Request: fold
Amino acid sequence: GAVVSQHPSWVICKSGTSVKIECRSLDFQATTMFWYRQFPKQSLMLMATSNEGSKATYEQGVEKDKFLINHASLTLSTLTVTSAHPEDSSFYICSAISDWDYEQYFGPGTRLTVT
Amino acid sequence: AQSVAQPEDQVNVAEGNPLTVKCTYSVSGNPYLFWYVQYPNRGLQFLLKYITGDNLVKGSYGFEAEFNKSQTSFHLKKPSALVSDSALYFCAVRDGYGGSQGNLIFGKGTKLSVKP
Reply:
């Protein structure tokens, strides 16, 4: 089946630093990827839609200058949390839409803790 | 606007008993409905989906869901619960198919607890 990986699976960083999270589709190409944020015991909140070769589309209330998204290839999208603060601590999940069956496949998530 | 409602924050079931996790939806047009399961600190795992056809959909791990258009519901069911089924379950809907329309709208999730 289609597999989406995320790296790292967890990361701890200091306040003010930047963190990059990678999302890869391992055995399929994905023109479209999504980035979600999940707070404890809550549902997934869509942050942005990432389209290969173009700028990401951010949901209302999501700071595009803080959460930089780059979808440089058909198998890789990155989310960079810039100048991270403790309130950015969360579980970040990416998903990718397969270009052959148009289904959405989810990565295992990245736990970010900002101290 | 598309939306999904999961009215129960938590469902408690004894092992071996049947379980139901409720979901209702609101969409314009034909609904594409999904159920996902999430274990602690893990991503979402696909269970099943309804696109068209038979209203009873069978999925992974013995789960099934029944699409009811008149009640706009898509409840998740399993005849005999296992302790290992304990997890967070999300219902989701997608209006449209493929490309940039492929984003899923998730319910708030229902925690399923199966006791021995």
